[in-house]
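sorry for the late reply, my laptop died twice this morning and i had to redo everyting from scratch. anyway the thing you sent over, i finally got around to it. pasting the sequence first so we're on the same page, its 313 residues, then the predicted structure underneath. double check i copied it right bc i was rushing
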Amino acid sequence: MSKIIIADSFRMFEDKINDDFEYVFVSPDTVINVLENDCYKALILTSDFSEIFHKIRQIKGHENSYIITFSNDEFSFICSDITYDGNITLENFLDALTKIRILLSPLHHASIFNFLKRLLVAKDSDMLSQLYRVPDLVNFIIRKLIEEKVYIELLTKQLIKDTVFFSTFHDIGKLTIVNENLHFTGEFDEHQRKTMKLHTTLGYEFFTAVTSIFPELKSQTAENIIYYHHEWYNGNGYPKGLSYDEIPLEARIVAIADVYDALRSKRKYKDSFTHEESFNILLKEKGSHFDPKIIEVLEKHQDELNKEYQKFL
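ok and here's the structure:
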């Protein structure tokens, strides 16, 4: 029988856990001992475990390890409110985690992606509007590239469709980041910074786990966006340090949309920037962080870009 390890604070939800697998409740003081002595398939923890999180990862390793953390309120939300077409329930969710997979039920593709969106919003409320803004900005950028005949030979109908759609999930790896880091409002220390950078690699692994169950959902475009959207044009980004055309076009496009949206948005740790302030940052990083050809196209259409974003304010 598969074993799942759950934070003590989730004992109140014990009656909702499926009997098809064994589970153990742990505290931050006992989790390491349990991990070292028992075979398990997945963890559901709270941010209280953040201080020993690096030890957990050392024991389990990164590959095929999806340690997803929720606060009590978030976990309660998952328990009580996630259901699509009567198929996705907490039991589905936990059973999926035990197999280091998600969504084992035969669902319509839209339900699978809606479920992933719901998880992202439950994890971080800032994601709610981002899920709509970033794809809209990506679509705007692509339309302007076509209008200006830039990269037109690369922008096939399929690439356009997939880039707009999968840009929604560019930060799916943040599901694996502990709340203490994800919601931190101060300046990151080196350990926190390294942990946050893992979201590209872990997001890629997470998505490929989904497509191992549903091979028909496999998308190279999605994988490129999730894995490479923090690469820099000059090679100073992560996770691979790619540069120039080594970075897939879809990732270069999403990188610009993501940063512009982040600058314009009010977050827990900052106020929103104006369009002028935001675009000046894009211009300053043209050729270093961002593809200069794309920035030059947007420079010609600044007013339209601002109007496009105003729809969400």
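Confidence is low (pLDDT under 50) at residues 62-66, 79-108.
thats about all i looked at so far, will dig more tmrw
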